[in-house]
Structures are given as C-alpha cells and as structure tokens.
Amino acid sequence: MRLTGEGIWGEPADRPEAVRVVRRAVELGVNFIDTADSYGPHVSEEIIAEGLHPYPPGLVIATKGGYDRPGPNQWVESGRPEHLKSACEGSLRRLRLDRIDLYQLHRIDPRFPLEDQLGTLKRLQAQGKIRHIGLSKVSVRQVRQAQAIVPIVSVQNLYSFSERGSDDVLEFCEQAGSGFIPWFPLEAGRLSGVASPVSRVAAQLKVTPSQVALAWLLARSPVMLPIPGTSKVKHVEENVAAAALNLDDKTMQELINPGGSVHRRAGRAAN
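RESULT FIELD:
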C-alpha cells in the first residue's frame, strides 16, 4: 500500500526505491507479500512485478479486489460480480501470473448478495485463476457465512498491539487453521509514545518500538502474518529483524491486554 503516491494514488515519489523495497524484502527471506489492485490503483502490483518477476520459488503474492478508486484517499466498495472478475483478471496481467495464490475480497459490498460476490471468486478458482480465497474486514459471523459458500483460508483485519477489536476473529482463525493477516500492524508510528509499554520494552531491549510491536504480533499467535507497509529499504530491514526478537515471559508480562491477561499463543516470536 505504501509503494504508491500520496493518498494511495499514483506513482510513488521514488519508484526506484519502491522497487528496491520489494527486492530487499525477498533477499531478507520474506515469502509473503500482500497488495491490492486498488493501491495506486494498479501501481503497487506493477512495482511488485517489475521488482520480482520471475518470482522465486515459494514466494506468495496475495492481492485483493473489491474497490473502485475515483481519486486520492477515496475508496468505494464494488462487489459487483463483473467488477470482481475484471479486477482479478487485471491483477493477473499486472502481476504477470497465471494464477494468484491468495485472492482476497477487499470488502464485502452490502449492495450485492455475498453468494454472488464469493460465487464469482469460486468460479475464478475453478478456472485455475485463483488458488485460495481470503476475506478482509469481516466479523466471525461473516466468515462463517462465507465458509458455507467457499473455503476461506485467511482473514485480513485491522489488528495491532493497541487495536485488538478482532481478537474473536483471530481466535476463530486459530481454531479453523486459517491465516490471520493484521493490517495497519504498526499504527503508523503511534506506538512510540514515551508512556507506551511498547516503548518501555523497546528501550529495555535497545530496539525500536516497531520491532517490539511486530515481535509481539508474531508471539501472539502461530497463524499471524503481519504485513507492515513501507516505502523505504531501511524500514524493511528493521521490520524483518523483528522476527529474530525473542520476547521472554517477563517481557510478555509487561505487554498485557487491558484486562490483565497475557497475550501469548506461541513460545517464540519467530520460528
């Protein structure tokens, strides 16, 4: 999302740097990259293909469809079946893929039956254009409804150290064996306040608050797939280094939820 211009619109200020960002991520071992046709629109997908195609084995490029973009910072849900079909086929062309490993419905459009929206993706899956289907910004009830139509392998919801409104969805994904993809995982730097428990732990460990926030997410659940966005190579390197940060039990005790119970589902921050 951050590989585009202001307002998630148009070209980035430094396209060569954007290309270096995706290349450096893969060099550092990242094997999951999330994008959407609406980022730019189209710009992010084009940069990913420019930087990484032909894709190395094991690299998963996930993208999304379900928005129209009339202008900068403008987002209009569009779950019309014809739009979703066209969006998927456009993503295939821009990403230079024969099949998209994970295609996500960016938003459920209330103007159209869910059966029609997911039915379109199911047909594209049957045609070999999509391998797996995911959802974004959904409740547990909506995931259950979707699962009755087509297998859902992942959910992408707003989630971070201080924004945990989707705890129930995360728990559902754990029980179902589905991936949980938290968007806005670093809250655009808002975690770095002096009084923040994240900042206090970061100071103790001599790392950045962003690294602690990412390490906490990775320790929070084994199905967590954080997607911190950036337009700078130095931030990619910092973010990836967070995977090696081991938060011990004492540290995790300091990073508690508002109710006082420790959020810990995995023994280590990284496998």
